[in-house]
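Batch job 17 of 40 flagged for manual review because the log was empty.
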Amino acid sequence: MSHSDNRRRGRLIDRNFQLGLAWRMMVVFFLFFLAGLIIVFAPSMYRLATGSDLNELEPAAREFLILHVRVWPAALFIFGGVFIYTLLFSHRIAGPIHKINGILRKMLEGEYPDKVALRRGDYFHDTAELVERLARKTLRGDDDRKDGVGGPNGTEGK
């Protein structure tokens, strides 16, 4: 297998899985972010809502406005970064699944690979090894049957 066959591609391998995972992660991060915003803004909002003295309201209002200026750009940066990172990370999951599914399809057609090569950073190396072992075992079983030795007791064809 050439080096170019084992390169990480820039495109989405399983679009539904990868985008679905990224959006689910965004929703969860958004919920945690909202909880964090409540914790950050709650003291200022409470002072603004319950305060009656102007000297007490001014620092709370200033703090509230400063937080708005700093939090929202950071939030956009974090959400964009998390979304992109999730897409890149999911590539390490979707790629091996795509490769293993393709090999299983070939095995159904009667082609048995010697090696299931995954990229170095990918997940499911153990699963790829199991598929390799299954292919070798199935190929040996097919060879035995062709030689006439593949019966239940190894006596078929004798």
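Reviewer: the log was empty due to a logging misconfiguration, but the result itself is present. The two ends are 40 Å apart (CA to CA). Unflagging and moving on to job 18.
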